[in-house]
Amino acid sequence: MGKGKIQRRLRYGLFLLLFIMLSTALYQPVSASSEERRAQNVLVLHSYQKGFAWTDDQGAGIEEQLKGAANPPVIYTEYMDWKRFPSNDNLEHFYQMIKFKYQALHIDAIIVTDDAAMNFAIKYRKEILNDAPIVFSGINQLGVDSIADKRNITGVIEKIDPTETIRMALKINPSLRKVYIVFDNSESGLSTGKMVSEQILSLERGLQVFPMNSLSNEQIIDQVSTLSSDSMVLMTTYYSDTTGRITEFDRFSSELSESSSVPVYHIYDFSLNHGAFGGNLISGKIQGQTAASLALQILEGENAGEIPIVSDSAVRKVFDYKELQHFNVSLKQLPEGSEVINKPFSFYQSYKKLVLSIVAAFAVLLAFILILLFYVQLVKRIRSNLEKSNERFSLAAYGADAVIWDVDMTTMIYYFSDSWYELLGYERDEADESHGGWRTLIHPEDAEHENRLRTEHLQGKSSYYYCEYRMQSKSGEYKWFQARGKVLRNADGGFVRFSGSMVDVTDRKGYESKLQMSYQELESTYEELTALQDELLEQYNKVVENQALLQTSEEKYRLLAYNDVLSGLPNRLSLSEELQKFIKEHAGGHAALFFLDIDNFKYINDTMGHTFGDELLVKVGERLLGLSDGRSKYFRFGGDEFVILFENIKGSDEVISYAQALVQGFKEPFQLNASVVHISTSIGIAQYPENGINAEELLKNADIAMYKAKEAGKGTYVLYGQAMQQHFDERMIIEKHLRNAISNNELSLHYQPLVDTASGGIWGFEALIRWNSPVLGFVSPLSFIKIAEDCRLIVPIGEWVLRAACRFIKELHTEGYEGYHISVNISVIQLMLDDFTDMVLGILKETGLPPEYLELEITESIFMESFEAISSKLESLKERGIGIALDDFGTGYSSLSYLKQLPITTLKIDKSFIDSIDTPNNMSLARSIVTIGHDMGLKVTAEGVETREQLAFLERTSCDKIQGYFISRPIPEKDVASWVEGRRAG
Question: Domain named PAC: which ranges (predicted)?
Answer without folding.
Answer: 465-517
